[in-house]
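User: Predict structure, ligand pyridoxal-5'-phosphate.
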Amino acid sequence: MTTEQPDSPGEIARRVVRPEVQALTAYAVATAEGMIKLDAMENPFPLPPELRARLGARLAEVAVNRYPDAGGGAVKALLRSQLGLADSEGLILGNGSDELIQIITSAVARPGSVMLSPGPTFVMYRMNATYAGMRYVDVPLGRDFGLDVPAMLEAIARERPALVFVAYPNNPTGTLYPAEAVDKVIRAAPGLVVVDEAYSAFSSDSFLPHVARYPNLLVLRTVSKVGLAGIRLGYAVAARAWTDELEKVRQPYNLNALTQTAALTILPERALLEDQAATLRAERSRLESRLAGLPGFTVHPTQANFVLVRVPDAPRLFEGLKSRGILVKNLHGWHPLLANCLRITVGSPADNDAVIAALGAL
Ligand SMILES: *Cc1c(COP(=O)(O)O)cnc(C)c1O
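Assistant: Predicted complex:
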């Protein structure tokens, strides 16, 4: 019998959990109870009552005592027909595209291998590199958040990245890089290039029709930004040689039965989803021009459902909006290129009026 005090959970965790994980901060989600929520690129429109009723009826029929369809076969068939995929193209589904980022990363990661992205960009790329033990290389964007092609090509030649992530359009800048620039990156990369099209519904261009042209391109999509963030469904399209490997890393039942049924009920309503996206694109133009009219504001061109603005004092305006019940994203301090930047999700017309009025008053 020993009389020594046993180690505390914290002491054991500090000894056992990898130091790079201990150094991370868990993805922070702000509480937004009762606020106008313009921080997370959600679609502001609820489903119409008739569709909600139909969804409720179909969800009630789901056999929750059974495991879901492990491969999401019916959802895949629907997406294949909606996207017009060729048989040679592989399709894999994820519990949000976040899970696909994790699947892709864990499939290619080896000790010391490199993930490379132009930055600032979506933070989950770097987080997943850390989880998987990859080294993350950030290639700073150029002027006006454009892709610095010479710097990218030089970094690709030097680092030989196993994985390159290009968000197209980029989050948090909204920039849609020229397709020729992304083409050069894909051609130069020795490994897989993920073109993350989370915002494709709001963007004028896509690499999805060109997947067959490249042996190393994977296009990542999600339904989150078009009104279905709550169901957690992402998908990726690449040559079957890629998706066959990724399927081995996917957890067998990653898409739950309720998600599959919700997707099969809502995704066929293409006119509804497209109308909402069109409304948001029009609201985006209105928000951009109103924000550009405010003194000291610089609005960056965006092809996503958010606007990045550089303001005179981002922390002060962020707090001022918050005290008026409006939540946006304060990017000040995230990356040297984002000093005094706020990211404002395009909301409903009333939400956008509120944020414009509040910023004007502040
Ligand atoms: C929002 C976002 C995602 C995450 O999408 P989920 O499908 O909700 O996990 C992926 N990539 C980018 C660039 C995003 O902005």
